[in-house]
User: Fold this.
Amino acid sequence: MAIWNSHFECMTKDELEQLQLERLQATLNRVYRSVAFYRKLFDQMGLVPDEINSLDELSRIPFTGKTTLRAGYPYGMFAVPLREVVRLQCTSGTTGEPIGVGYTRNDLTHWTEVSARVLCAGGVTKNDVVQICFDYSLFGGGLGFHYGAELIGASVIPGSNLDPARQVVIARDYRTTALIATPGFAIRLAAVVREKGLGPADIHLKRGLFTGEPFSERTRKQIEDELNIKATDNYGLSEIAWPGVAGECEKKKGLHIFEDQFIPEIIDPRTKEVLPLGEEGELVLTTITKEAFPLIRYRTGDITALDVSPCGCGRTLIRMKKVAGRTDEMVTINGVSFFPSQIEHIFSQIWGVEPRSCLEIDRRGNQDIVNILVKVSEKIFFDEMKKLQDLKSKVEREIYQDLGISVKVKLVEPDSFARETKGKRVIDKRESS
Assistant:
């Protein structure tokens, strides 16, 4: 099994920790000298960067969050003069407030390197034809994969945001062997392949690397079966590196975090205490090689757990489990906290699919009431209503057994679903009652 950079990906624990400490000390000095936010923060705490002499002392430093980054938009968090920044990008700004991100030449070299590691872990080699179905825009994902694939020596097709029908034609004609996309796009691609009367052999795909949205093992199997490929997961975020924070190898036992570039921690999102290895909580990342936009103890908002058990691929890097949800999506119903993704997982186990759904929460007296709106097609309404009624009753029972909450599942036609949910995953009416 190929490893792109065995020097960094297979280091001993002692070697890795020494490297991390040296790079952490350099990063702390950099942000203290050049970023007003960190300088003020360290001075308020009486923290001298040179006094951080072990990785355990990282926990002395407060967290950095999205609010701080947005307040510093566009250049307030940069640690180098603008003349040293060779690329400017930003996050998607789903709340209407983007975060500006900059890169020096060295930053781009590191980003390309970790992107190549992700691709190599997923099985990509110089003999592959890689089709990238991510928008080549300010958000960075398409470019990251592009440069990583070129570093490996693969042939790259920048499919960008072309529609699935056009992507299928390109994949067939150019004999694409590796697909880079969201899992949802892969499912739509497979549907187009069927509609065109083609089979997996007609488009020659061997592997797919998927990111940008969570997906279950059931969805992975669906993609692998319908496209006849091996599917791996990877993780990143625009303000840190996307792609490039972590990648799943072909053993599929978790995502290897590139610890020579990032120091991971897991915290309790409520108490902010660092949790022991193996416990689930919020992922916190500290960058230790970035020059233009270094971040110290950045709260990602993603819920996962870390695993240090050996991996059969030979990498010694710590692994993270698939992201289970986000702290800003956590819902509390009558004292029980859970994530919408847990509801979706129950749907997938029973229905065999992950339907579009929305949690509608209200309060009657002292009790929280939960309706789960589920989008279903008009054909299903007419042809399979009795079967769906039985299924939704089963879902309601499973949710009560698994999560301890009572819900009602409501089947909603596509047009009504769009009107009622307005694209939201959770509608909490308790906030206005």
Notes: Residues 330-432 form a domain with the GMP Synthetase; Chain A, domain 3 fold (CATH 3.30.300.30). The CA atoms of residues 130 and 156 lie 5 Å apart. The chain has two domains: 1-323, 330-432.
